[in-house]
Design goal:
Keywords: Hydrolase, Signal. By secondary structure, the chain is α/β, with parallel strands linked by helices. It contains 12 helices and 9 strands. A 9-stranded mixed beta sheet has the order 1-2-3-5-4-6-7-8-9, with helices on both faces.
């Protein structure tokens, strides 16, 4: 989830206007509202970023940001969030009504527009209009449309290089967040690796959905990422001169998916990283996080997996696929520090949303860390940062550290 502000704006629609045919019990809207606020190995603490230079701000925002900072440090906040998730019924009818798409217009690829492609092929290869990268349109038989990805080739094309797929957060628009907020072209400018950034995966959790969504369209992202994308990128005709070594990583929704996909396809990836993700498809907190990702963009998460599918995709329950590859996992603790407060003090909604989001993924990370250790996977590097919220300024800092760790695979 990369836009906590939208999460707060969503409340006025989703919970002020519940399902018209069913009045929820009094405690449910309150719990659901709080849940939506939650849902935008060596232990190695990382220092928080230095605070930027203060700029003029009105006293109301200044005081509000200070109150939120103090609130974020309350120990009982973690406990309250943990106690909340089991109270939210995942399949309540009033939670399943269509929600206004917070992040823009409906998909450009409605189900009725799907096309038949017999094989994944490169349809178009052009310079990107906004960034100094290349934009590819790839025919996807699985999704029935042309999937667009942005690619930053390895700096020296005369030498073979591995590929690193970078998955975006919940919005996953046509311009990757890794290029925009993540500033990947600066942080990875000297790395001899081909960076691949899929676009338009909004709210998909990068999964193969069991059913088409009437609003979001057809989602077969796991098939695309593991089969169709490599077939095109690694074809010599594409011009990327890859060496067959594949890595995958992401943040928030994308981090959750990267770990799940690598775990399910250990033969296809040499290493994986995740920044602020959730990793169980069945446990309450993580499941609600993944469900909200889809609901927040107008989709129905009940179409993603049935219950047996959720069980099969649960990385916490079965992380065995990660045993032979480097794994890098990051989370902050959700405690607001000066850099967070100064950056967001004119937008208290975003500050509060990013705070609770990070506390949710922190709980998910602790659960995942414990599972890895109980399954004998003690080589994973799990980084717990003291201070910090759900924010790109931490993810762009973490990317080169994560890459340095997983590229050893």
């Amino acid at each position: 989830m990369e836009n906590p502000r939208a999460m707060f704006d969503h409340l006025s629609f989703t919970f002020v206007h519940p399902h018209p045919r069913r009045k929820p019990r009094g405690w449910v809207p309150v719990c659901a509202m709080l849940l939506c606020l939650c849902i935008s190995p060596a232990i190695s603490p990382q220092p928080a970023l230095a605070a930027p230079v203060l700029s003029p701000v009105d006293p109301v925002h200044e005081t509000g940001s200070q109150v939120l900072e103090a609130w974020s440090h309350k120990p009982e906040l973690h406990h309250d969030i943990a106690q909340l998730s089991p109270l939210i019924p995942n399949d309540a009818p009033w939670l399943r009504h269509t929600v206004f798409n917070l992040y823009g217009t409906p998909t450009r690829y409605p189900v009725e527009s799907l096309r038949h492609y017999s094989a994944p092929v490169l349809l178009e290869h052009t310079p990107d209009p906004m960034f100094p990268v290349e934009r590819l349109k790839i025919a996807s038989p699985a999704m029935g449309r042309a999937v667009e990805v942005q690619v930053r080739p390895a700096p020296n094309r005369n030498f073979q290089a591995p590929t690193l797929v970078l998955l975006d957060g919940a919005t996953a628009p046509s311009q990757s967040g890794w290029l925009r907020e993540g500033q990947v072209l600066d942080t990875m400018k000297n790395e001899q690796v081909t960076l691949i950034m899929p676009t338009e995966g909004t709210g998909s959790n990068y999964a193969d959905w069991a059913q088409d969504d009437p609003y979001l369209g057809r989602m077969k992202w796991e098939t695309f990422l593991t089969q169709e994308l490599p077939a095109v990128i690694e074809n010599p005709a594409s011009g990327f001169n890859t060496d067959g070594r594949r890595y995958i990583g992401g943040l928030s929704m994308g981090g959750s998916a990267a770990v799940r996909i690598a775990n399910r396809h250990p033969d296809k990836y040499r290493g994986v990283f995740s920044l602020s993700g959730c990793y169980s498809t069945t446990e309450d907190t993580s499941r609600n996080f993944l469900n909200f990702v889809t609901r927040s963009v107008g989709g129905d998460p009940m179409l993603t997996w049935d219950e047996s599918g959720r069980a099969r995709h649960d990385t916490v329950a079965n992380p065995q696929g990660l045993k032979k590859m480097p794994v890098y996992i990051f989370t902050a603790d959700g405690n607001v520090v000066e850099a967070d407060r100064v950056k967001h003090r004119t937008n208290l909604k975003q500050l509060a949303g990013a705070t609770i989001l990070e506390k949710v993924v922190h709980a998910c990370t602790v659960e995942f860390d414990q599972s890895l250790r109980s399954h004998g996977i003690d080589h994973a590097k799990v980084v717990y940062q003291d201070g910090g919220i759900h924010d790109w300024m931490y993810y762009k800092q973490q990317l080169p550290l994560a890459w340095a760790h997983i590229r050893q695979g």
